[in-house]
Every structure is written in C-alpha cells, then in structure tokens.
Amino acid sequence: MQLGFVGLGRMGLNMVRRLQEAGIECVVFDTHLEARREAASHGATAADSIQDLVARLDGPRAVWLMLPTAVVDVVLDQLTPLLSEGDIVIDGGNSHYVEDLRRAQALSKHKLMYVDVGVSGGVWGRERGYCQMIGGPEPAFKRLDPVFAALAPGVGAAPRSEGRSGEPSAAEKGYLYCGPNGAGHFVKMVHNGIEYGLMAAYAEGLNVLKNANAGKQQRTADAETSPLEHPERYQYDFPLGDIAELWRRGSVIGSWLLDLTAAELGRDPTLKDYTGRVSDSGEGRWTAQAAIDEGVPVPVLTAALFGRFTSQGNELYANKVLSAMRHSFGGHNEIKTDNKG
Amino acid sequence: MQLGFVGLGRMGLNMVRRLQEAGIECVVFDTHLEARREAASHGATAADSIQDLVARLDGPRAVWLMLPTAVVDVVLDQLTPLLSEGDIVIDGGNSHYVEDLRRAQALSKHKLMYVDVGVSGGVWGRERGYCQMIGGPEPAFKRLDPVFAALAPGVGAAPRSEGRSGEPSAAEKGYLYCGPNGAGHFVKMVHNGIEYGLMAAYAEGLNVLKNANAGKQQRTADAETSPLEHPERYQYDFPLGDIAELWRRGSVIGSWLLDLTAAELGRDPTLKDYTGRVSDSGEGRWTAQAAIDEGVPVPVLTAALFGRFTSQGNELYANKVLSAMRHSFGGHNEIKTDNKG
Amino acid sequence: MQLGFVGLGRMGLNMVRRLQEAGIECVVFDTHLEARREAASHGATAADSIQDLVARLDGPRAVWLMLPTAVVDVVLDQLTPLLSEGDIVIDGGNSHYVEDLRRAQALSKHKLMYVDVGVSGGVWGRERGYCQMIGGPEPAFKRLDPVFAALAPGVGAAPRSEGRSGEPSAAEKGYLYCGPNGAGHFVKMVHNGIEYGLMAAYAEGLNVLKNANAGKQQRTADAETSPLEHPERYQYDFPLGDIAELWRRGSVIGSWLLDLTAAELGRDPTLKDYTGRVSDSGEGRWTAQAAIDEGVPVPVLTAALFGRFTSQGNELYANKVLSAMRHSFGGHNEIKTDNKG
Amino acid sequence: MQLGFVGLGRMGLNMVRRLQEAGIECVVFDTHLEARREAASHGATAADSIQDLVARLDGPRAVWLMLPTAVVDVVLDQLTPLLSEGDIVIDGGNSHYVEDLRRAQALSKHKLMYVDVGVSGGVWGRERGYCQMIGGPEPAFKRLDPVFAALAPGVGAAPRSEGRSGEPSAAEKGYLYCGPNGAGHFVKMVHNGIEYGLMAAYAEGLNVLKNANAGKQQRTADAETSPLEHPERYQYDFPLGDIAELWRRGSVIGSWLLDLTAAELGRDPTLKDYTGRVSDSGEGRWTAQAAIDEGVPVPVLTAALFGRFTSQGNELYANKVLSAMRHSFGGHNEIKTDNKG
C-alpha cells in the first residue's frame, strides 16, 4: 500500500519510519530538505513539492498531513486542486474538531474524502506505536485500515481485558473508528483533557508530599501569616523519587505517566532544571469549552487547565485586585517576599 | 458600664474609642505605652499591667481581649488567676473556634465565663460600627449587651429587610448571639470564607475584562502556544475603574467590597503599586477544613483559598512536575519567558 | 425624545414605564396585545406591528429591542428594511457579544447603527433603575444619552466614591460607554459571571453553617463512610436567617445579594419551597469560554457554573463511572440511600 | 518467620494467603469464626482470642492489624498489656497518620514499636501483590523486611525505570520505608488523594464524550435555559467501551484504573447498574486538609473530593439558596424537571 505523507517534524518522521517498516510505501514531502533526506534514508520516496508528491501516487490516493494546526489550511488549499474524485486527505495533527467539520464539507464539494485522526504517543510512538482515534466517512476508514494497523501498537501492547476474546477488534489493536468527521479529533481532544487532569493529580499530590516538612520551617507570627497549628504533624522529608517508583507496582495509581514521572524524579527529585512554566496547546481549552457547551461539569479538568494558565502568569491582575481590596478594607500591606524566597 | 480591654492595636484602639464615645468606661492595657497613652487621650483609663487592669475593675468583671491569635493563651494564663467567680473573658480576635471550646472548658473550671466574638469591620469599623458574631453562655451575652450594642453599627446602617418590623432585633442592629462557645468564631470563620469567595469572583471577572484585548497581541505560532482562534473577538480596552464604579448602582453585583474596589480602581486601574502576593490569615483555611469535616462541597471557597496559596508561590513544585512530565512524554521544553515578560 | 421599543415582557414593560415617567415618548410593540395595552395605560403609544412602529417614529429613529436571545435575529430581519440611514437599533437583551459583532457589521451595510446594551436590575429595576453597559458607535451612544440617563439609577443611588467630585460622570449615574460593538454585552457577560461567583460564595458558606450540627447525627461506622473525627466540634444549630440579617450591617460581606438572601431566609430559613435545581442562562458559560480563550484562570467562576450544571443532573454519568471503578478495584458497592434520604 | 495477624476481612484474608504462600507463618485472629476457619484452610494457625494469638507467637513478636479505623484503638488497648518489650505492632489499615503519632508515642511508653503501613492493592492484591508505604522506627522496618517482601508485587511487576540497575531497591519491589511514624499512612493518604483526582479526570472526560450528542436533543427556548449555539457540533454517539479499550494501548493516558474502566465499560457502557452515589472513606479529606495546613494548592484533588460530597447530596442547601436568590432578584422560578428527568 502507498501513502502520501506531508510534514516530517518530530512526530511525522517517526510515523513514516514505522510505516515503512510495516511495508507501507510512503511518498513524503516537507519544506525542509533535511527532513526529506532523513525520510528517504529510511526507505521513503522524497517528493520535491506537493505537486510532485501527488504525481507520484497512484489513484485512488491517500495523503496524510502531519502539520502544525496553523498550516493545515494552507497546505489543503494547495493540495485540493491536485487531487481527484475518491482521493482521501487525512489530518493527523492536533486540529480542533470544529475545523474538521468545515474542511470535510469543503473537500466533499470536490468529491474528496476527509479523515481526521487524533494521534497519541508522543516521542515514544515509534517504539510503542500510536493510539489513533479516527473520524470521517467509513469507506475511507476501511480503505486506510492497513495504514492505521501499521501505526498502532497492536493487541500485544497490553493484556486483553476480561471479557474480550477471539479476533481482537481494532480498538484492541490501538485504533478505532469513532464516528463521522470530527469524531477522531473530538475523542483526542477529550483524551488530552483527561491527560491534563491526570498530570495535575500526580503533581498536586507530590507537592503535598514535598511540603510535608512545613512544620520544620520557622513561620512569622503576624496577622498576615496563617499559623500552622500543629507543626509536629509536618516533619517529614519524603524520598519523592522512591515514592514515585514504589507506586508503579501493585498500587491503584500506576500508569504510564507515573512511569515517566518516576524516571524523572529518580534522576533528580528536586527538578531543579525546570522553572515550572507549563504550556498548553489547545486541547485542554477545547475540552473545557465543549463541556460548557454540553452543560457538563468538568471541575477537575478546568482546575488542571487553570493551573497552567496561572503558571504562565495570567492570574496576575486578579491577584493585584485582591491585594488592593485587602489594603482598602483592612489596611493590609502586601508581604513583599514570600516563603519561596 | 465598665469594660477591661487588653490589646490596643489597629482594631483595638478604634473599638475603645467607639466604646468610650458610647459611654462604656474602658480600663485598657497594652504592652506598648504609646497605645495606652492614645487610648487614654480618648478617655479610657490606662492600666500599667494586667494586674492593675483587673484591680481597677469592679466585679463582676468583663475583660475583652483583642490580640493576635498566638498571644491569646499567654494573656489568658496571666489573667485567669486574677479573676473571680462570675467574671467574663471575651476573645474578640480571630481565634479558631476549636480553641474556644478548649478555653471555655478551662475557664469554666475557675467558674469564669468565656465569650467568643467574631468581629468584622476592618479599619472602617470605628466609623461604620462592628458586626459582631457571638458565642458563649447566654447569661454572659445578656450582661454584655450594652457593650455589643455600642460597638454595633445600629439598625440605621441598612434599610430594614422586607418582613422585619417593630423593635429591631439585635441581629438587625449588627450583633447576634449565635449559640454556645465557638459559635461566634465559627460564624466569623465562615463569614471570612465567604469573603474570600466574593473577592475572588470580582478579581477573576476584572481579570477577564483586563485581558479582553488579547486579540491585539501577537502570538507565537508554535506547538507550545495555544492559538487564539478568533482574535477579532478580543479587541477591547476596557475602562476598568469606570466599570467598577458603574456596577455600584442598579446592578445585581453591588456590594461594599465593590465600593472599595471602585475607589481603588478609580485611583489607578493598573494597580501598579501592588505585586499580587495575597496573604491569608487562617479563617479561609478553617472554613475549608470544617466543610470537609462536614462533607459539604465548597469548590468556590477553596478555589479562592488556593488562588492565595498560589500567589504565595506554593504551587511551584507541582508545576515543575508537570514540566518534567511534558518533557518526558513529548520532548516539550519549557518556554522560558512568558507573555507577562 | 422619542424611542421605539419592541418586547414588553417582564423587563421591557418596566423599562417603558420608567422611560415614560422620565418624559421619553415610547412607541411600543409586542406580539401580545395584552402587553401593548398595559404599556399604553402607562402613556406609551402602542403600535399594531413593526411596520406601524417604524412609521410612527420621526427620523432619525432609535428602536430598542428587549427580546429573548433566540428572537432577536428574527425581529432584526423584519426591522432592517424598514429603517433609514442613520437610524439606530439597540439590543438590550442578553445576547452573546459575538452576535453583536456579526449584527453590527450586517446593519452597517444598510448605514444603520447598532448599539448593544447589557442591562442589569432584574425585577427591581423599575424602582432602583437599570445599570447599563453600552457598546457601539460613539455618536449613537451620545444621541441616546437621555434614554440611558432616564433608565439609570442616578448618582444618588450610592454614596460617591472617594476621589470622585464635580459633575458626576455617566458611570456614576449608572450607565457607561464601554467601547465598540460587543463591549456592552461583554461587560454584562462578565458581570453575570461575577454574579454566579458571588451567589455561590454565599450559598456555600450558608451550607457550611447549615451542616454545623453534623456531629449530632449518627454515622454508620463502615469502610464506605468517612468518619467524623471530632463530632464535638459540630454541635451548632445556627439561626441562618438572623445570621444573614446580621451580616448586612458593618461586615465586609454586605451586598445587595445578601440583602435579598436575608429577606428570603428571614421568611423561611429552611427554604423548603425550593428544590435546588438552578438554571443558567448563558452568560456564565460565555464568561468561562472567553476566559479560556484569553488564557485567564477563573476557577471560582467555573466552580459556580459547574455547581449549576450539577444541580441540573449533568454529572450523573461521571459519577457512575466512579462507582464502576470503585467496584472494580475495591469491590465497593454503592450505598443506595444517602444521608439526605 | 512468624507473624500475628488480626482482622480477616476482604483485605486481611487475602494478605494472609499471600503471606502463607511465601512461607511466613501466620497466627491469625478475627471475631468471625468463619474467617478464622478460612485462614486456617490456607495454612494459617487460627487463635481463639487475642490472648491466645499472643501466646502462640515467639518473641520478639510482630502483630499486624488489618481492621476498620474505628476498631484499631479498641484492639490496641487489649493487645498492649499482653506484649513485651521489643515487640512490634503494625497498623496496615487506613488510619489517619495523625493517629499514628499518638499511638506510637503511647506504645513507646511500653517499649513497644509501632509501624504504620499504607497498603494499596484492593481486591486484586492477592494476585498482583500489595504496594506498601511504611513509617516507624527503622529497626522495626528492617526486622519485618521478609513480611513486606512477601506481600509486595516484586520487581517483575513493571519494567525497571530508565537509570535503575543492579540489585533492585525495596521501592522497586513495591515497598518503601518512608520515614518516622505516620510517614507510611501520610504517603498512603496522598496516594489516595491522587487516586481521587485520577478517577475524576477519567470520569469527567467520559462524561463529555457521553454528552457529545447534546445537539440531537430538543432544547426549550426560554430565558431559563441556556441555548446551545452550535447544535451541529454535538452530534456524536461515541462507543465509550471501545474508546476506553482503545486508550489502553499507545496513548498517554494508559493506567491500571483505565484497564479496569475499559473492562467495566466493555460489559455495559451505559453503567445502568450504578446510581452514581460515590462514597469517600477519609483519605481524600485528610489529603485536602493536610494540603491546606501546608498552604499547598490542590484544586484538582478537592474538586474530585467535592464531586463525591455532591454525589452524596450534600450540596442541597447551597442550591436552594441559589434558587431563592434567583427568585428574589429576577423572579426566576425553578424548572421542576430537568434534562435527566
């Protein structure tokens, strides 16, 4: 099977390697010559341009886009007139599913099929395989089955669930047809929303452990500082790296994220190389907004999201308002330096 | 009527002045000579020591403590042996109500009565009067009625509620017997918990208005930065001082806190004199902990509390954990400088 | 001055009365004959149709719409072709400000001006006046000044802020030009977002007080029920109506919402006539979504919003998932009846 | 090695079996004869009473308590006088670590050592092994090493973390000495706090997916119901069981909790056998309270906790207050039936 592949960044290149290894012939393009050369070194056919890429594919074609969200529409505009009835375009990036609805409609006017795929796996995907959440016309999904199967981890990546037997389903292999267009990115969006929540749960818990020695520190005894009533209860210096490692076996909270955390904390439990400025890249926001549209409460997911906004400094004015109020009603002056010195 | 009064800080001195003006004879003490002199200049009798203060009071005595939480027990230890059966000690500071339970029991062994009073009013109290939430033995409350009435704002401070007529109740004058010991500080604790929530609601809303020009700013278009899909919707530069002023009349969200905020923002809507480091002084924490004991959800009150903790820098380690995780699964590097420069 | 006014519901009729009393001649229309008649009984001129209403107004016209959000566009479609260059349409309902941007652009093609006004005041507005947040072309705002001034509470509705003197500004009278189109509804949206937060802060605090007798109740001592470690600390039966009344005078948390709450709790502190199903009507959602777009953390405002979603039953499936998980890892069975039995 | 074991409930019995299989001779007691008989059928020695149990153990003894929190002190009172200097008591239940501090001090007066062990593993522990978080005197920990090792999953239960090599540490086998008394239950407490957060993150995300068909439902168009602006975006009927299964392979959010969830949803994605009443058993509360004492923000963990309180019906009065306010300022009546009707 043949596949066009545009976008050879961190993710894209690894995916092409996995596809080639599984016998899918990739015709690839990227604006960076270097990236094309590396793909070629792994057996892919490097095209010189989008036109060239389309020309090198036999019909009916399928072209997978693995691009920054902002660039997808630009490439689609170039690609669309070059394709023919029955061809498929796949967006495997992190698009908002609302964009999928619009794009699918636009492409259907040219009798092209559009498939949206949410891909999870990060930098580990080449080795572990990619979990794929797929939306679009079902015939397109079926035609692309070998591609999805090649990228997916396969059933062996986890023990089968109780009650599952016989020929493994696609879901059990790590890819799933989730519904009409947008369904793939919708499920991926929620996946990332959950990811934010899981990450924050570990981070908050570890922070409670980190500060379990609060009773050892001297506190100022003024009206501006809340007293610690029982300092004798907060005298622990916990070995955080070992604790994360410990929880990996036999506990209820074992997970892949914990595996990674244990490795990081094993190297340096103080995490001194990090400043704590946490980016967010869209999906967490979209999940919250979808939940609000639906009227579904997501207090944990938004708390995780807002923690990131705050790490970016965006709570600043709100805090100034609080300080101004406190000054105004109580004559409270801000303490200029805090515990963290 | 006579009242002993220990503690002439910001609050205490103002309270003594209000009491003296209402004809309550105050015998006062404070370790600072200066404060005693100022109280005396307003007509109070300054004692040289706790012993002297007790000696100058006719029995049955009543001594009001207006002290930092950490000092209350120290003074109580001095005071207790000097008092006689039937005397009353009032704690008007910000004690945790759990301390009241312990103290009341200890004093009752000496046949002394203990009264806990939560006092709200801040630096404005001398002029506006003090709202008083009172717990303890009911006979003590009754004996002290003139004191509470003198400190309270009086019924004229607000229009009477629909359905209230005839002789105004104590609650309508601004003081209330809330129940047995601890009841006064319990109600004050929750009062402050609510205050945190109210303040945060205004602060968050004003922050949304402040950032309504987000669409005017250039955003980096990389995988680490969430795109603003509709910059044209965020092009407003709002006059925050005027908006706070506006809301004071006719709107649903008018309040005394808003009055103060409008004055602050009227002076300087950028609040450049504040850094945004917001202290907390115990009651917000105790409210949250009481709610948790009761099994009562208080998501708004804890969100407000946690905002303060974060302003103090205590979320730092949690954020480093998040950065470490993101680096580990996605190869994401922290953006070292953020929007706030 | 003359004003067309379409929509004579609860709000609209009261506004027309206030306008007529201030000498603004209102030409009104509503599909309900009854409502038109009532407006006429207060001096307004009742039109038989939108056409009739437009015909009865001298140019340049101004027509105020006070309609359910879903109907605004329908009426606009009827109204637009009947108007002439320089006429003004005002939307005083609860539209999303994003709709304003679209509508203003559409009307500008017909050389009509569009003004969006967020109106606060509820059923009390006729008596207290209406707080108005205004967006649109500045010349339109200026032309309509007498209308806004007539509806506004006036400077006397609150003491002037410290630092404000001389001729009162519009903001001090209760109306404000907030910026270009959408600005009025944006500020109103955030106003309501804040309102949700304020309401929830009071509600949560009162709930903590309500449950301060938790220690009096018998608890089952099984592994499914969290033990109350100190029942002796939760023995209070608080007089909630009196407490709300108390806080109205001299406390930091006094507000108009508290005034209303005190009246309600004064009538019946158990609130037995309410079931606790709390609607939301859009602005709280939009505020949260705008904050998320801006990257501004609003944990208090969303907690308040999610509380409403939950009161509507929308958390149900999430809770079933939790029960399923607990059953799965711990063999925990759901307790079928809870404390509230 | 010999071990006394008191408490043969769900957890206790499984632990005894695992211990016996590993060659630890257990002398067991439980008030239920049945449970003693079952333990005996697996090779344990059943004692007739606490006295008998102590008598059957050679010194220095070690007795493991696996009891409901409320019963621990009762049994300790019986046990303490029967033991001799140097004996060890282990509390493996879910005690609050603050109780450990008190108990350890009390036992040390009798020259007994107290060890607190937080045990995770649930009903799966016999098969998977138990993750153990251990606090107390280090010599006691060392003496009990074979017991902990027998209960632990062993290093093979998970791939070794990058950077770990050589002889596996105890943490890598699934048990860890965390520090002085209380440390074990402190870490277990936080472990469970994290568990609440993780569970809620999955549950909320799945609820967003479940309601992704919101656009298919008819909504009332009244002022009490928030309009869904884009129903076309919420037309998905997602296969929730398959999605949970899908995420188990290759995704970032894989975990043991997800494994269990996938099995549950695989059986019945509607979860119709559950009502959604979610108990909490203490640790989530204690984690939140410890975080508040430390001044550490835990918005995700408390959101998860409050979700449980709400599922138990404890938000009711707060919601009634909201309804009363809305009625009071806006004349809003409650909608008596909601969507979930």
TrEMBL record, chains A, B, C, D:
InterPro entries noted in UniProt? 3-OH-isobutyrate_DH-rel_CS, 6-PGluconate_DH-like_C_sf, 6DGDH_YqeC, 6PGD_dom2, 6PGDH_C, 6PGDH_NADP-bd, NAD(P)-bd_dom_sf, Pgluconate_DH
The answer to whether keyword Isomerase applies is no
Q: What are the coiled-coil residue ranges?
A: none
Q: Report the protein name in the record.
A: Decarboxylating 6-phosphogluconate dehydrogenase
Tell me the GO molecular function terms: NADP binding; phosphogluconate dehydrogenase (decarboxylating) activity
> Belongs to which family?
Belongs to the 6-phosphogluconate dehydrogenase family.
Metabolic or biological pathway, per its Swiss-Prot or TrEMBL entry: Carbohydrate degradation; pentose phosphate pathway
GO process annotations (BP): D-gluconate metabolic process; organic acid catabolic process; pentose-phosphate shunt
Mind listing the UniProt keywords for this protein, alphabetically? Answer: Gluconate utilization, Oxidoreductase
Q: What gene codes for this chain?
A: gnd
What sequence ranges are listed for the domain 6-phosphogluconate dehydrogenase C-terminal? 184-335
Pfam families in alphabetical order: 6PGD (PF00393), NAD_binding_2 (PF03446)
